[in-house]
Amino acid sequence: MLQKVFLLILVTFILMVHAASSVRAAGFSILDREDFWSCDHFSNNLWGLHDTLDEKYGLSFEVLYLQDFFWNTHGGLNTRDSGEYPRLFGLYLELNTAKAGLWENGTFFLGLEHHSGRSPSEQQAGDFQVISNIDAKRFNHISELWYKHSFLDSKLWLKLGKMEATCDFSHIETGLEFLNSSAGLIPTIPMPSYPEQDWGAVAGVEPAEWFGCNFGIYQGKIDGGRSIGNTLDDLHGPMLITEPSLKYTLRDMPGSLNVGAWWNGRDFEAFQKHPSSRDHHGSAYGWYAFWQQLLWKENPADKNCGQGIGIFTQYGWAPKDRYEIEDYVGGGLRWIGAITARDDDIMGVGAFNVYFSDQAGHRKHTETSIEVYYKAQVTGWLAIQPDIQYVLNPGGAINRNALAIGGRMEFVF
Fold this sequence. Notes:
Radius of gyration: 22 Å
Strand order of the largest sheet: 1-3-4-5-6-7-8-9-10-13-14-15-16-17-18-19
Number of helices: 6
Helix content: 10-25%
Low-confidence stretches: 1-31
Structural class: mainly beta
Order of helices and strands: HHHHEEEEHEEHEEEEEEEEEEEEE
Strand content: over 45%
């Protein structure tokens, strides 16, 4: 599969280079050679395709290929032939209605995703929190299809469609580069997120720069595989979620505190220590919080300087009689530009800990994942990220602690 993807990229490159002479007449221009390494999208190296479409027609696109590789070298379920290689191929299109000459303040978004490869967690490490955040069963589907409209100078906005909920809730920017799934989504929240993006409606309000709040309603029984063809089948719930956000500065360093609460009306499995005739509860609820803070900036006088050190912490709670995880605590540190002359490289270290419900039948009460990574931005559109994760009590079972070594390759066309 990997060889086929690279072959497809190579063929596409050759065809587009041969087509460059004809598209120049349409107003496209080839970037200077020195921009080859710095531009954010490989397509701009051909004839400025990405930027030209955005500026002239309001259409931006991203073709993303993520290739993970992990080997479980100690403990867990298995260490023999333990290499697993999940991969994700995505095409994402966004249309700005104002630039397209339609109407002001509107955005259409379409996401198409393909996933293949076996799970490092399910097959080798046996952990609950999932080592790779692109881990999933094989699928091809429309991952997102939504429209967003802004009002009152973007102080109010509405979004409707099939969407990735972590863009609007539990969005922890400082944790985005971690590969462990808990850094990107607090695991006590049953939210429609990758690979189970689902339908809903979200509203956001920001009456002041220092305060904002999002409100969402989603399909309660998450089933992203329904794509869009039979989306009204088997509806449950709904799931309701709200998340106020407080923004501030501490010694000129920005920070934010978010606190959220959710309620889901679908049936949840009933956990209990003693036998009972009740198999399910009618609903579940919970709350969560996360905090992000920039600690140090390399050039404080430059507002556009992205180099520095930031931290984040997370907490989540759900009722132990209807949710497998009762509590979650996590956090990490991210350092952008830690090495001189490598301004875009990112390194990070984090720890993510789940407390299993004592009624869910796990042999051990906790699972802790410790992750260390270094993301080397080889070019603006190609990154290589070595990653190490050590998992204590994987899956809350009696397996030995697991050590997974691997990383990710990221290509942005």
